[in-house]
Amino acid sequence: MHTTEYKNITMNGLWHKNVATVQILGLCPLLAVTGSVVNALGLGLATLAVLVGSNLSVSLARSFVTSAIRLPAFVMIIASLTTCVEFIMQAYTFELYQILGIFIPLIVTNCCILGRAEAFASKNPVMPSVLDGLMMGAGFMIVLFLLGAMREILGHGTLFSNMDLLFGSGAAHMKIKIFEEFPGVLLAALPPGAFLGLGLIIALKNFINRQMELHEIAKKGAPVRGSKRVRTTGAIT
Amino acid sequence: MAEPSPSIVHSINRNALALAVFAVITVGIVALTHVSTRDQIKLAQQAALENSLYQLIPKASHTNNMLKDIAWIKHPLLATDKEKAAYLARVNASPYAAVLQVTAPEGYGGKIQLLVGIYYDGTLAGVRLVPPHNETPGLGDGIELKKSDWMLGFNGKSLNNPHPDRWQVRKDGGEFDQFTGATITPRAVVKAVYNALKYFEQNKDYLFDRAQHTQTQTDSLED
Questions:
Q1: For a disulfide at B166, which of A175, B15, B86, B162, Cβ 3.0-4.6 Å?
Q2: Structure pTM?
């Protein structure tokens, strides 16, 4: 396995095939829980854990699973991993588990997990599969985080509030008040705010892509054009 | 009918066996996780329950263990759909206060679960929301203590304070504030709290008598 391949997997997960902004998968939890950073990160981490675990198990089991039974087998793996994550969250982040509610078990139905199992892990060795799960999950989590941060700042005027629900009481002081006495933009806190926010993030990503393309073209074109004269006198002012 | 060819039977057998092995392994993993997190989950539920009960009835104020002094109740006034635990606090065996689990069925986003703490004399010790709720963020979620002090407005109120006619939100001619742009949520909560007080007034002796000898196992707040 070459490093370029690992680099490709990483770039695909984080950017070129990003689950949320390019594949547009897993929108239901993405839009529903991004009211604050702590909720977004909680679901992001849970999804990441399931994705890495399922890619690992599917890759390990890929030689025993015939194509006839691969879907039920994958679903079984994903469902059991999700249940495990649910137990663990209930045990260690009980309040967050209560807030996220139904969206934890619904990780099973996040298309990106079955999608990666089917499209990548079932055809690749363990290491690349784990990396793919990690990067796809990270890409998803980053978008969740951005959207959560945007909506929390606009909707409540704070950032990182209640982080102790996820990281223990030591993280309680992480809360930042962005605006004092801020009434909050209601639209950002409501579901339409999530749609608009995601739309803006996708637009920004596409804009950056376009700029990079233009840059590439300019770089290729640059050396050919321009003056070929060379100054021969030493008099430089 | 023609016999299925041996190769099909063979592949069915093999696939069924593989799936069965998968089921056994995955169920095993789930069972293992369940067993290893079970105690921690119990602890977390217990801690959450303790935390919310002692916010209403401080631990130092009574002498029994109210987490274990439970009456199981179900009543139309509480709008609960099944038997729920009422936690009872006593000072040296005489009744001191109770915490009831109450449902406000008419919330804007569906049912709102509440904990209502009532002293034996019928005064409210306080009301708390049991998460999660589905009230509109920025409007109805003022019932969360994190967002506003509205819930604290119930402290010290009772059936006749204010007068029963004034047990309404301000918009309906009552005593309690509504939120800007959200009347339905506070209206539902006020009504549920009033009903809980009514229930307690009618049943308090029955509650404390019945629970006295039934040291039932504690249950979580969750359904």
A1: B162
A2: 0.79
Residue B188 buriedness (CB in 10 A; 0-12 / 13-18 / 19+)? buried
- Closest among A40, A35, A42 to A188, alpha carbons compared: A35
Distance between CA atoms of B18 and B60, rounded to whole angstroms? 59
* Token representation of residue A45: 């981490």
Minimum distance, in Å, between the CA of residue A103 and any CA atom of chain B: 12
Q: Which of A64, A94, A186 lies nearest to residue B48, judging by beta carbons?
A: A94
Q: Directed axis angle between helix A37-61 and helix A111-119, to 10°? A: 30
Q: Which parts of chain B register pLDDT below 50?
A: 213-223
Q: Do residue B19 and residue A68 have CB atoms under 8 angstroms apart?
A: no
Q: If phi over 0 gives left and psi between -120 and 50 gives alpha, with beta otherwise, what is residue B162?
A: beta
Task: Please list every residue in chain B whose beta carbon sits closer than 8 Å to the beta carbon of residue A68.
Answer: 11, 15
* Interval A10-56: pLDDT, tens: 999 999 899 888 988 888 888 888 888 999 999 999 999 999 999 99
Q: How many CB atoms lie within 10 A of CB B178?
A: 21
Per CB distance under 8 Å, which residues of B are interface residues toward A? Answer: 11, 14-15, 18-19, 22-23, 26-27, 29-30, 33-34, 37, 40-41, 44-45, 47-48, 131-132, 136-139, 146, 222
**Beta strands of A93-169 (E only): which ranges?**
158-159
Question: Which of A92, A98, A100, A169 to substitute to test the interface with B, most B CBs within 10 Å?
Answer: A98
ipTM score above 0.85: no
Q: Closest Cα of chain A to B101: distance in Å?
A: 17
Residue A80 has pLDDT above 90, yes or no: yes
Would you state the pLDDT for residue A200? Answer: 94
Cα separation of B193 and B211, whole Å?
22
CA A42 to chain centroid, in Å, comes to 12
Q: Give the model's pLDDT for residue A36.
A: 87
